[in-house]
Amino acid sequence: MFEQQILDTPVTVLSTTYSARDHLAGNGRRFLNSLIDTVFFYILAGLTGAVLGLTGNASLVKSPIIINLIALTLFLAYFIVMETSTGATIGKLLTKTRVVTEEGMQPSFKQILGRSFARLIPFDAFSYLGGNPGWHDSLSGTFVVMKEE
After folding, report:
1. What DSSP line would sit under 39-56, residue for residue?
2. DSSP state for residue 83 in the 8-state scheme
3. Which residue range is the domain that position 39 belongs to?
4. Based on the structure, what is the number of domains in the chain?
5. Along the 149 residues of the chain, how does pLDDT read in single tens digits?
6. What is the pTM of this model?
């Protein structure tokens, strides 16, 4: 038996064969994560639009191309910043889940970047239904697991 640091939480590991596959979050929780993150994203987008309007930059939000670029940037930044810094988004924090590698470690920046860009694949949000790992999980080698208390 030895002490191992997994995601900033000291845990006692009985063997070195930890597998995130044994601790996966269920589909209901994954759906709730997605729903919460979508609501939070729209709040963030609305606040960004309000700030642009109040600072005299309302002309930026008149162009559909600029609006889409701002939305894309906010979307990617939200997931990259949250999952890189905490291993979880607002949705995951509220549902007590987090993103890990198969060994239960914090994913690398490269994995989080790949995971975030994979979310742009059409219908990715539904790819985990039916017991499959989501495309953004399988393509980046990450898993969403229940957070250990």
Report:
1. HHHHHHHHHHHHHHHHTT
2. H
3. 2-146
4. 1
5. 344 444 555 444 444 567 887 788 888 898 899 999 999 999 999 998 889 888 888 777 788 888 899 999 999 999 999 999 999 999 999 999 999 998 889 999 999 999 999 999 998 877 877 667 788 998 999 999 998 76
6. 0.81
